[in-house]
Amino acid sequence: MDTQTKARFTKDKANKKITVIKDFDADIDTVWKAFTDSKQLDKWWAPKPYKAETKEMNFKEGGRWLYAMVGPDGERHWAIENFETIDKPNQIVFSDAFTDENGKTDTKMPTIRWTNSFNKTEDGTQVTAELKFDSEEDMKKILDTGFEEGFQMGLSNLDELLAK
User: Which runs of consecutive H residues, i.e. helices, occur in 6-146?
Assistant: First the structure.
């Protein structure tokens, strides 16, 4: 398998969701760890030249990951994942929102409900991320931030990390 395959994005406005499918040349436990361990996430989650920096990680149902995307000039864009369901190594369900540095949600931006599914394949692991929005307007607002390009870059960073 080509380790640099691009993620496939499908936008379903009628159902207010984005589906992202990405294949990785790594076993399911390795890919699971890359999505659930803050030390791993800090290495790939943010699109270059940004980097992710964890402030707090409590990976359990009811726990959260509070992190910043740190820009090249040191500016910080805070976000949080609140974990709802964890079924290791098959699925993680969480809500995701922009926040301040203390985890207080920025109500001007939408909250997204993610379901990340991990499936063994013949050559590695396929991750399917389904992002659900409250409205088409919320979905557009997130896409207008450059989400597709940024997440594509982050997933490419993960390809590079897994190749090491």
Answer: 28-36, 38-44, 136-143
